[in-house]
Amino acid sequence: MNVFIPTIGTRGDVQPFIALGEGLRRAGHAVTVCTSTRYESLVRDGNLAYAPLSDDLVALVETPKGREAIAAAGGAIGGARALWDLMQESLQIQRDLFRDGWTAAKPADPDLIVYHPKMAIALSYAERLGVPAVMAPLFPVFLPTAAYPTPGFPRLDLGGSLTAVYNRATHRLVRTVVSAVGRWMFASWRAAHGLPPQPWGTDILHRTTGERVPLLHPWSRHVAPDPPDGPRKDVWTTGYWFLDRADDWMPDPDLEAFLDAGPPPVYVGFGSMAGGNPEATARIVVEALDRAGCRGILARGWGGLAASDLPETVHLLDHAPHDGLFPRVAAVVHHGGAGTTAAGLRAGRPTVICPFFGDQPFWGRRVREAGAGPAPIPQSDLTSPRLAVALRTARTDAVRRSAAALGTKIRGEDGVATAVARLERLVTTSGPPVR
What we know:
Elements: E1 2-6, H1 11-26, E2 30-36, H2 40-44, E3 49-53, H3 56-62, H4 64-72, H5 76-108, E4 112-115, H6 122-129, E5 133-135, H7 160-185, H8 187-192, E6 205-206, E7 211-212, E8 215-217, E9 235-237, H9 253-260, E10 266-269, H10 278-292, E11 296-299, E12 314-317, H11 322-325, E13 331-334, H12 338-346, E14 351-353, H13 360-369, H14 384-394, H15 397-411, H16 415-430
Parallel strand pairs: 1-2, 1-4, 2-3, 4-5, 8-9, 10-11, 10-13, 11-12, 13-14
Antiparallel strand pairs: 6-7
Helix pairs in contact: 1-16, 3-5, 4-5, 10-14
């Protein structure tokens, strides 16, 4: 079969889908990955067909305005206003993405579309082409449950049934907002391509078939178990989709020398989420490492941590593959992106999460509840003393044992193979495309 995979965002939003594409290719299927131009080489290195999307939306997040909006995102009304302003500025960019994605989807002639929620327009592509679609969110956001609120909302203990009502209400609210925004944003494209308006409601429906869109959940049940009141039969938690390309990776001489010069260091990296003042963040991290008696590797990332006059116990890193580096560190400290969380846990390393917003606090709580790290430290509360305490906790025997055991379980899963089998079964049972 031909599979079209559109995704957009940070590397963490793209890499799992490339891993899925490689698994599909190994199973004999043709795959086109449609994503930002900055990831073209990553796609082609996996022997997958590449279709371009503009890099403008990702680049916007890297601007000072974008960083400030992200840094403010946890700040209630002010943060919401900053994010809204960023969304307004991105509207034309997103409409260009709709056009570019459709330009790529038509010649791909897909039998199936698997898409990231950030490319939700892809469901309209599937309807126009008369083929099935599967959405793959990277955290549990579109599956209502009474077990916990949707990521991004606080956990409230309202007592018994009231807590369950609140939890379900957060999921319904998010789905209602997503439905309304999608109906508005995609209206012009759908009308121009002969499709009726997107239906109202909180279910994500394939308008041509009238059925709910299946969900693939690319994470481990050992980290985020299926809630007791789910999942539906059209929701599959597969295990993580890891892109393993570190077999031939060797640290550069400076990094190798640092790794060999003492006990395993702590990795610290906030990726694209360095916030509005990466220099101040770097100072907090360096002081915390010193307080906790740890050596450290600081990853610049996109916005990256910036530091000058570092002590000999801290090494500044431009880039290294997580699957190659993490087995050689003592613990990992990061913002709680789904991909970085998965990589650290698979390596069996204690994890300290310092979240900004969105799904990041959710993964921080899951790490804590799994015993693989201390309670998350929100970025707004990040100080050297707090981080030093968290680092000491992460190095205790109990946490190290729990993290190691969790890593063994995750390494025993093959999320990509499970996802490929599910997709093959879906296309086989759904019949030929409706052209």
